[in-house]
Design brief:
Layout: E1 11-15, E2 22-26, E3 33-38, E4 59-60, E5 66-70, E6 83-87, E7 107-110, E8 123-129, E9 143-154, E10 161-170, E11 191-193, E12 198-203, E13 208-213
Antiparallel strand pairs: 1-2, 2-3, 4-5, 5-6, 7-8, 8-9, 9-10, 11-12, 12-13
Length: about 220
């Protein structure tokens, strides 16, 4: 699987002829590989799965940190949520992972766009945050989240400390096939609208978009 980075700095991409994969930093002028890191499941300590069914591409933050979504090493061990792995710009330091990541490319949200946020990060991330019913302990309470990449909290589904939830929103449409569950968010990557302080996201099955207001 080859994925295209979302930034014009020295490139980062995944490559795998097997389920496991690496994040590779390339020289932006010559495309010469500079460093690579194996994508490890932070809970199991084994290589994560890079799925051909997923839509995750690397996201490079304003500070150079790199984020990439993967599936857990053992399918269903994290309710098929996967992880949003987090590295420094040189791919030499592993940072706080996100609790969902496999089928989503994280979007950058300026911290100033969220008045309720009181932390120190200059930017936040938004990702879908599904908890698929019928997979592991998944209950179908599918959400979308705004996350602080530099603060952590306990994960609800593992012993791993994960990026702190700043805002979450439950899917707006009940799933009639599963009482108590909602249709999943279906996002490849969300559109962050600075003009309206909102995030445009897609909801599965009803095939329309929802504005997730995060500002004033």
């Amino acid at each position: 699987m080859d994925s295209t980075p979302k930034d014009s700095k020295d490139s980062s991409a995944t490559h795998s002829g097997r389920p496991q994969g690496y994040l590779v930093a390339l020289d932006s002028s010559t495309l010469t590989p500079k460093v690579r890191v194996l994508l490890i499941d932070p809970s199991e300590g084994k290589p994560s799965v890079v799925s051909d069914d997923g839509t995750a591409s690397p996201t490079v933050g304003p500070d150079g940190d790199v984020f990439i979504g993967v599936l857990e090493a053992t399918f269903g061990a994290h309710n098929a949520r996967g992880w949003l792995l987090h590295f420094d710009a040189g791919l030499t330091q592993t940072k706080i992972p996100g609790s969902f990541g496999w089928d989503d490319t994280a979007s950058i949200v300026p911290a100033s766009m969220v008045p309720s946020y009181s932390g120190t990060s200059i930017y936040l991330l938004t990702t879908k945050y599904n908890n698929y019913a019928g997979t592991g302990s998944g209950d179908g309470k599918d959400k979308v989240a705004v996350l602080d990449p530099n603060s952590k909290q306990s994960d609800n589904f593992s012993a791993v400390s994960v990026t702190k939830e700043v805002l979450t929103m439950l899917g707006p449409t009940a799933d009639p096939s599963d009482p108590g569950a909602v249709y999943e968010w279906c996002i490849n990557t969300a559109a962050v609208d600075l003009a309206t302080n909102s995030i445009l996201i897609m909801v599965y099955a009803i095939n329309n978009a929802v504005l997730f207001a995060v500002g004033r």
